[in-house]
Design a protein that fits this description.
It is built from 15 helices and 2 strands. By secondary structure, the chain is mainly α. It comes from Virgibacillus massiliensis. InterPro entries: TPR-like_helical_dom_sf.
């Protein structure tokens, strides 16, 4: 909405007429008509609390919640005398549009300031509790749907869909079923999918032991006791070795970092020994150099250990990219 030049004024009589007509239109629930008149007043920089709140009500009743939310967020940047009234409208918009997380964070922030007027504290607390319940209900509903879809995707061997559904379940912080946990032991399950399941268990601090079969190796571990990929000593050692390239050849370094992340993701939680960090780093350099057409020793000239890891890194990159699409 564009304002008219500041030297253009609205005669008091017409201002009063517009204000009364917009109020009457609001009372009669003629929201389109009321909005036109309110926007006219705002174009003359008549922006009282009554005018702005009237416009917000119109937008909400017309289903234009996104516009109303944008206006509220702009208004809340300035803590004037009407701050908490605008905040109440803002929280109502968030609730009506199912933005429960954002609503709860905003209320947490407001209560931490210890400045919420006593007359509004109970209302905000009720909104918080209702949002918490609604969020939990939505989570349960979505979890059931995603688990059903995951079962179908496994039957169909649709690996990409499996991974996307596991990511949704992880972000919901849902509790995995025993059927999902058993995927970690099945030979028919893609290694990337097993990683997604294990990271989900780590995210919810799963404390029971689980069996993982991967790379011809069986593990029996507690997910909450296994360091995440970037906290693994092996990752840090390799990062230290290839770190010299960060200034010398940034393009190669960034590629090696990507290859390393993909390699360890596919292997996780069954990783090579820390004593092989040097071999893996050298193999990463070989693979990265070949991708960028940088001259390097031939594969045949590499040691047996390097050849093993070169092949494994290339395989893991193929497996990773076959499932996960990075933007």
């Amino acid at each position: 909405m564009q304002n008219l030049p500041e030297n253009v004024i609205l005669f008091p009589k017409w201002r009063t007429v517009l204000e009364e007509e917009s109020l009457q239109a609001l009372k009669e629930k003629k929201y389109e008509d009321a909005l036109l008149k309110l926007n006219k007043l705002l174009s003359y920089q008549i922006d009282s609390y009554e005018i702005i709140s009237g416009k917000l009500i119109c937008l909400m009743e017309l289903g234009r919640h996104h516009e109303a939310q944008d206006i509220c967020e702009e208004l809340l940047k300035h803590k004037d005398e009407h701050y908490y009234h605008y905040l109440h409208i803002y929280l109502t918009i968030l609730f009506q549009t199912n933005q429960y997380d954002t609503l709860m964070k905003q209320i947490d922030y407001e209560f931490q300031s210890n400045a919420v007027p006593s007359m509004m504290q109970e209302q905000f607390q009720q909104l918080y509790e209702m949002s918490s319940k609604m969020k939990a209900d939505v989570s349960v509903e979505h979890t059931a749907t995603y688990l059903d879809e995951l079962h179908e995707a496994i039957e169909a061997e649709d690996y990409r869909k499996q991974w996307r559904l596991l990511e949704k379940l992880r972000k919901l912080r849902s509790d995995p079923t025993q059927e999902v946990i058993s995927l970690l032991m099945k030979g028919s399950i893609h290694p990337v999918i097993k990683t997604a399941v294990f990271i989900w268990l780590q995210d919810i601090n799963y404390k029971d032991k689980v069996k993982v079969h991967k790379w011809d190796t069986a593990l029996n571990v507690k997910p909450d006791e296994v360091p995440n990929i970037h906290n693994q000593i092996l990752f840090k050692q390799i990062l230290l070795i290839i770190g010299e390239l960060e200034q010398k050849d940034p393009s190669l370094y960034n590629l090696l970092l990507k290859l390393l992340n993909h390699y360890l993701y596919v292997r996780f939680p069954v990783l090579p020994g820390e004593e092989d960090a040097e071999w893996i780093a050298e193999s990463l350099k070989y693979v990265g150099s070949s991708y960028l057409n940088i001259p390097s020793p031939t594969r045949e000239e590499s040691s047996i250990e390097n050849r093993h890891y070169i092949e494994e890194i290339e395989l893991c990159e193929t497996l990773y990219e076959s499932i996960i699409e990075e933007s």
